[in-house]
Amino acid sequence: MDTEVTLRVDGTTYTLGVDTRTTLLDAMRERLGITSPKKGCDHGQCGACTILLDGWRANSCLALAVAHDGAEIVTAAGLAMDGNLHPMQQAFIEHDAFQCGYCTPGQIVSAVGMLDEVDAGWPSAVTAAGDAEVVLDEAEIRERMSGNLCRCAAYANIVPAIAQVARS
């Protein structure tokens, strides 16, 4: 028996019936045709499925759709506004921060969410205890993005792309 849920994805509201075991990733990809979040490991280890869930980073492969009825979801496709790329999307292009591109939507969404977490004052394992301000150097960015893997190893360009946006 399906349970009805309402999800707002990239500004559009959808109501659909889902099995209680259906993840947000599967609901978006298989039921709604939203393919920006990718299914990589399906275990929350690679970050290819990263979305902003009610404003915060989440692995959509681990989140059950029924647990997020009424949620606001933003994917990489929903970051662009009025036909203009989000600054993070533009930075990834300028820095050639992708190779095959499979992880790129998750990387971009995660980077946007990570910058919001820094703005909110969330510490990381690299941040020194009691630091008044987080310095987004290479080590800090790498730590905060460690949940997003790139099999092509484009990190040498991903980190500078994120740093560019952080500075602006």
Automatic annotation (TrEMBL):
- GO MF annotations for this entry? 2 iron, 2 sulfur cluster binding; metal ion binding; oxidoreductase activity, acting on the aldehyde or oxo group of donors
Q: Which domain of life is it from?
A: Bacteria
Sorted alphabetically, the keyword list is:
2Fe-2S, Iron, Iron-sulfur, Metal-binding, Oxidoreductase
Write down the InterPro entries for this protein, in alphabetical order: 2Fe-2S-bd, 2Fe-2S-bd_dom_sf, 2Fe-2S_ferredoxin-like_sf, 2Fe-2S_ferredoxin-type, 2Fe2S_fd_BS, Aldehyde_Oxdr_Iron-Sulfur, Beta-grasp_dom_sf
Domain 2Fe-2S ferredoxin-type per the UniProt entry, residue ranges: 3-79
Give the pathway: Alkaloid degradation; nicotine degradation
User: Does Metal-binding appear among the keywords?
Assistant: yes
Q: Which N-terminal stretch is annotated as signal sequence?
A: none
Question: Under what name is this protein listed?
Answer: Xanthine dehydrogenase YagT iron-sulfur-binding subunit
| Organism of origin | Micromonospora pisi
